[in-house]
Write a structure and sequence with these properties.
By secondary structure, this protein is of the alpha/beta class. It contains 18 helices and 13 strands. The protein binds one RNA strand through β4, β8, β9, α4 and β13.
Length: 458
RNA sequence: GUCCCGUUCGUCUAGUCAGGUCUAGGACACUGGAUUUUCAUUCCAGCGACAGGGGUUCGAAUCCCCUACGGGAUGCCA
């Protein structure tokens, strides 16, 4: 156990943004790497935006990604409460310290933090008016990611609104002090705010924590950072797509960090061991949905069939394809065939439907393609004949039977396989062909071929 | 406007701190080929980058300066 204490401090907005998730992840990784403590603190000072559902989205997203917290909501801890909405007394007490020291003052009903330095008035281009400015000494931070960064604040800023509610910069610093935070790992969008925060730490006579500002995640196309409206920006989307959380987490780790060798698929324990602050990139990373999908596919393929079955069963039951008593060994045989073909679990119900149900739809395009060449009825009648002679309907026998038809007609097996596949599964894309027929069984295959002929070949 | 941060294949990145082993490596994507007498998988190959300029040096992707471009901040949002 080390004395490292890091925190993830989201404000509940009703969605879990991929950038926030990555910030949470990096904090969690650092805590686990150092044997420190990972704290979850809810920054809900903006009351209107906070609802219980919003909180649940956050908690569920964190848990889904495997980011368990050591202190915070639900688990408690000695530095609580962990909701800023419940820390009003703490903030009142701490703002008094500044007031007493003359480092804060009231104006327009709000409380302002007072910078130290020579004062003058100057026109502000951004605010488009004259403002009182301060020649404050520059703040220097030794950022673990970006190195030495120097910046000077030049205006007093509000720490308590006229409404009586404290402002982000203030509560952030007070909480980091009272919760004993040693390392602040957050998005680069806060880098410019850090001088405000360091000014506050100093005004409280507290040594600031170590800072590490991580790069942002940019939208896939177009300018700017990922916004909640962009495709793939929300963790909920991956949950809905039934992506594997390990895959999402692995991809997120690699957005702004790398193990410094050619490895990409890494177990979480390997990542925990290798992860460190100075190894984080300085450059913003652009989100890539295809690469994210690639990780999911890799993880899915590597998954033990028992796990695939365990994950897939509820989905298949929900889709009405199987009952809960479906034989496990048959299910696993089917899933094994599907596992190597699908890219994500959410494709499974559609992909495997024909294994369980006769009501699969025949895809128009596939049908036309397959009916266009040769003489489909003749081919299928040959197959029916060949199959009816089979004593054992296993993959090898089926292959031999088709081969026999192909040899006899001189057409090649290519004239039979796509046609048969459409007849028994409705599509020209699917699992490995011969094993697939074997699982379906002779009776079902024959019935489906006959039905196909009467319904689709005039 | 001002301030802060950044810039290697289309994208994620290795290499930069400790200059030569870099005719710049890997992955995703894309293109082509082989395998599968189907679709997919797999395998192989190809395409493809040090933002530009100046300097330091025997030697620069790597160090310094300038420019350009990108991102962020500049709220009584967080």
């Amino acid at each position: 156990m080390s004395d490292v204490r890091v925190r993830f401090a989201p404000s509940p907005t009703g969605f879990f943004h991929i950038g926030s998730a990555r910030t949470a992840l990096f904090n969690w990784l650092y805590a686990r790497h150092t044997g420190g403590t990972f704290i979850l603190r809810i920054e809900d000072t903006d009351k209107e935006r906070n609802t219980d559902e919003a909180l649940q989205v956050l908690f569920e997203g964190m848990k889904w990604l495997g980011l368990n917290w050591d202190e915070g909501p639900e688990v408690g801890g000695s530095a609580g409460p962990y909701f800023q909405s419940e820390r009003t007394e703490v903030y009142r007490e701490w703002v008094q310290k500044l007031l007493a020291k003359g480092r804060a003052y009231e104006k327009d009903g709000a409380i302002w933090f007072k910078l130290e330095g020579e004062r003058y008035t100057a026109y502000d281009e951004y605010l488009k008016k004259d403002m009182e400015k301060v020649k404050a000494a520059p703040v220097v931070i030794d950022d673990q990611v970006r190195g030495r960064v120097e910046r000077a604040e030049d205006r007093d800023f509000v720490i308590f609104r006229a409404s009586g509610e404290p402002v982000f910069h203030f509560v952030n610093v007070v909480d980091d002090i009272t919760m004993g935070i040693t390392h602040v790992i957050r998005g680069e969008d806060h880098l410019s705010n850090t001088s405000k925060h360091v000014e506050l730490f100093r005004a409280f006579d507290v040594e600031p924590p170590v800072f590490a500002h991580i790069p942002l995640i940019l939208k896939e196309t177009g300018p700017g950072k990922m916004s909640k409206r962009d495709q793939g920006a929300l963790i909920e989307e991956y949950q809905n797509l039934q992506y594997l959380p390990e895959a999402v987490r692995n991809y997120l780790c690699l957005l702004g960090w790398s193990p410094k060798d050619d490895r990409e698929i890494l177990s979480i324990s390997e990542i925990i061991e290798l992860f460190d602050l100075p190894a984080i990139n300085k450059t913003n990373a652009r989100f890539d949905a295809k690469k994210m999908g690639h990780f999911n596919t890799e993880y899915l393929r590597a998954m033990p069939i028992e796990t695939v079955s365990w994950l897939a069963t509820p989905k298949l039951v929900e889709a009405g394809l199987i009952g809960s008593e479906f034989p496990e060994d048959t299910l696993q045989t089917i899933l094994k065939l599907c596992q190597e073909k699908i890219r994500s679990l959410h494709e499974l119900s559609d992909f495997a439907r024909f294994f369980f149900k006769d009501d699969y739809t025949i895809i128009e395009k596939a049908l036309n393609k397959v009916l266009k060449k040769g003489d489909p009825s003749t081919r299928l009648n040959e197959v029916i004949q060949a199959f009816s002679d089979l004593a054992h309907f296993d993959a090898e026998s089926i292959e031999a039977a088709i081969q026999k038809c192909a040899d006899a007609s001189g057409n090649g097996a290519g004239a039979y396989m796509p046609l048969l596949r459409v007849a028994v599964s409705g599509t020209n894309v699917g699992p490995s062909f011969y094993p697939m027929l074997a699982i379906l069984g002779k009776e079902a295959v024959m019935t489906r071929i006959r039905r196909f002929m009467t319904e689709n070949i005039s």
